[in-house]
Amino acid sequence: MTFLTISIIAVFVLGYACIAFESGLKVNKAAIALLMCVACWTLFMIDPLSYVMSADPSYAGGAAGLLSHVSGTLTHHLGATAETLFFLMGAMTIVEIVDSHGGFNFVRDLLKTKSKRTLLWRVAFMTFFLSAILDNLTTSIVMIMVLRKLVHDRNDRIIYASLVILAANSGGAFSPIGDVTTIMLWIGNKITTAGVIKEVFVPSLVSMMVPLIIMQYSLKGELPEPQQKGSAVVADEFNELQRRILFTLGVGGLVFVPVFRYLTNLPPFMGILLVLGILWTVTEVFYRKAHLDEHSFSKRVSHLLAKIDMSTILFFLGILMAVACLEEVGVLTSLGKGLDAFSQGNHYLVTGIIGVISSIVDNVPLVAGCMGMYATAAVGDMAVDGIFWQLLAYCAGVGGSMLIIGSAAGVVVMGLERITFGWYLKHVTWVAFIGYLAGMVSYGMIRSFVF
Question: Most C-beta atoms within 10 A of its C-beta, which of 91, 295, 312, 372?
């Protein structure tokens, strides 16, 4: 490993440490992530030819074509990152539209209860199953919006929000469309729909149930009656039918995104933009027939776009592009090979460690690296729906719950509820880790005694 590569790793580690201690440094995590990203790529550009030759020994472009090659590499990673960011922005806008016009009122009514602990259980199970149908990112946004209507005490709400992260990541792990990594493994013919649901469902459920049982003791008593702020205004603008239409178009549209991807082979963010365009058009038609006052104008889609948390978007951009730099210099591939040698073929140990690492770095390049390192075998643990690939789907999805910045769901909830890294590390990380291990144990038992 060269001094330059060590420098890039050092910058990444230092940046992550600064993000972890954001509350103490009083510097926004997005600023740190952007600086970390630019610093990593600047170091990369000191000697890009060595990295290009290392990745592709047959490269013959020489110094003349090097800049063009590096520019293409950056554009490739930026394009992959932009797909995630546009999906995130589109999903956040859709949920904001539905929420601003009372579309989640009946979901709130389904969850409503006086008991804090009962609400925690209802939120956990609804999040778990919704994330398998939608995705863990979109589900987290929806559930946080609903929780804001039900829980007004912030100290209580961040406990619910933390469980939303755990339940969303666990629910996404057993579904082929519930998480980006399971989508990758599914499309790459490493797992099948029936196989992953049949054998990973119970471990995923266990990984959610164990933290749920523990965290319920953090809540006592009953919830005060929520104040329905502005409910009269919402009722005057849109009637019940219109609110149901917005909810159906918004959430139903999010469910349709995987179908749209299957039918058109277009990336998921295109489906999100389609849903957003339809929802935007429908709301404009509704408003054209309604009496508009100053408050009503503030809830038009063009105004709601200003509510998108750009600091979270930029944080995500910085993190993903910094991880892309680590991928380009070969750090992630070397890490995977090192794990394989260290474990001596123990797939539970390899995937278990990958799951822990996925709470620190993005799980997408980790899974992509594993898919590139290991070939699919005809039979055995490396076969389609073999132990390795199913464990990888579970560990990469659930492992991200151990740190709040370890998953897309965690990042967006962190931005929406302003949960600090330190608070989550102290109160939730150990609970998530216990659930993670419990799920792996249950998977081993299922593979040994059932299938």
Answer: 91
